[in-house]
Amino acid sequence: MRKLQTAVLISGRGSNMMALVEASRAADYPAEIACVVSNKPDAKGVQFAAANGIATKVFDHKAFPNREAFEQALDNYLRSMKVEAIALAGFMRVLTAGFINGWDGRIINIHPSLLPSYKGLHTHERAIADGAKVHGCSVHLVTQELDGGPVLLQAEVPVLAVDTPDALAARVLTEEHRIYPQALALLSNRLIAETP
Ligand code: GRF
To answer: By alpha-carbon position, which residue is closest to atom 7 of ligand 1?
Structure first.
């Protein structure tokens, strides 16, 4: 079975990356995690990926003179690994238009809010502060507009009166781990149909 060669980009814990790796183990899952890339040398997720036999690479953005040089190195690596799609999973670097255009329609991101609400950071704090009754997560295609590309899948969770940001984040994260593998499967099936 043809599986879409997918890179997962992380900056930290990597729990969404782990969910993608777990899902990709199923024989009928349409994506294979070709590599895990981090911009942080100490990202916990890198150890998990390596321990699971996945190619790992660290590009410490601080070691590059500018954003373009960092992205060029990243792009060269991904192409050398025959990557066909990119899943951002807690990757905390903004990608430039130049990079995104080179992967048009092939980059997805998981964001902890019901987009278009709460783009950017501190989504759980903001939802609670607003008195929102419903919150959640979204997987979207990455375009030049930050957290603004077309949404592929969303999941809702209730916001409870007693919620702290951490409690709400944990409830959302459970849904992230459920829908991110589903969304990558959707993208993979679509791209494989285009290029069997
Ligand atoms: C997740 O909440 C994700 O939605 C956001 O960053 C967090 C990453 O968590 N983009 P993890 O590294 O996947 O555990």
So the answer is: 90
